[in-house]
Amino acid sequence: MRVLVCGGAGFIGSAFVRLRVREQGDQITVLDKLTYAGRRENLQEVESEIRFVQGAIEDPLAVADAVAGCDAIVNFAAETHVDRSIADPQGFIVTNMQGTHVLLEAARERGLRYLQVSTDEVYGSIEQGSFSESSPLEPSSPYSATKSGADLLVSSYFHTYGLEALICRGSNNYGPHQYPEKLIPLMILNALAGDRLPVYGDGRNVRNWLFVEDFARGIGHALLHGAPGEVYNCGGPDECDNLTVVGRIIELTAADPRLVEFVTDRPGHDRRYSLSSEKLQRLGWRAQEGFEEGLARTVQWYRENEWWWGPIRSGAYREYYERHYGRALKA
Ligand code: NAD
Ligand code: TYD
Q1: What's the CA gap between 170 and 178, in Å, rounded?
Q2: Known active-site residue 121
Q3: 126, 178, 183: which to mutate for ligand 2, most atoms within 8 A of CB?
Q4: 43 partner at 20 to 30 Å CA-CA among 7, 12, 161, 169?
Q5: Any catalytic annotation for residue 293?
């Protein structure tokens, strides 16, 4: 397949590109704006085998250039961090909604298959049981609201224009190359450095953890075997609350448990996410990595790849960190 992968220099997009090039021999073009979260280094293993275009998905000219010769579009490009969306939602509306619209138009004009990468956060929080694809959308944060808006637009292009559009909604991902603003890499790097471990609220919020390569496989599966107009949930095999995750990271890094610090809760903080992936499993997908082993692999990767995270921790990330956590974590 010849696939345009938007946001392919990010955490999950680059895992998808590496997998498709290595295992499927796809011809890949990556379109990525290279925001703070996008890094060419994430693609270095396959650099000579792909075409890379730097540009924004909300820019129709950049999209027209990148999409030439492709049969399908897979859209990972997004502003993705809930805390940043709470501080300033504007960029989330432009990229996640306007950008998706530009890509849908490009797919419609050319008759391409289109897969939107989405999230379990569009369903909101669930106390018991798991969300299915027919659960109502009840997003809590500006991030999840813009992802929900994009999903609805994608569905409308299937119903209105007959676009071969699908949606794949993943649960919380973790693994190598994740930007350290998200819980797991933030806690790993802080634990390795002996810095405080900022836990929001009571630390009992539950997430459904999915190893990044399993999500990349799930997306590939939905793209090839899924039916147009359908949504496919792709959830991890294990659920775990944040304090348990942090406790496990402390063990794996031999950090001091007294580094844990309870800080002010995130506004609108969803209590629990849980996805039923039966529909994707009926197409033959299964998560291969359990949380215990996946987390140990992830800690090991961060230990061995300071070249990757060192420049992030000393750059603009520091300013973000100070702004977001500074006061709460002052001694
Ligand atoms: P990420 O923040 O690591 O990467 C996002 C990528 O998109 C970066 O390479 C960035 O440069 C690029 N990008 C941002 N704005 C752009 C724009 N306007 N034009 C072009 N490129 C742009 O994100 P991620 O964690 O890899 O998430 C990828 C997708 O998966 C997102 O759509 C996200 O909503 C979804 N998702 C993420 C998770 C998770 O746990 N991280 C779970 C489920 C779904
Ligand atoms: P996060 O990685 O931001 O993913 P999401 O909000 O999209 O699920 O957060 C995962 C969980 O960890 C969530 O319950 C918020 C919590 N959390 C903390 O307790 N401390 C932190 O510093 C961060 C970033 C997250």
Answers
A1: 15
A2: yes
A3: 183
A4: 169
A5: no
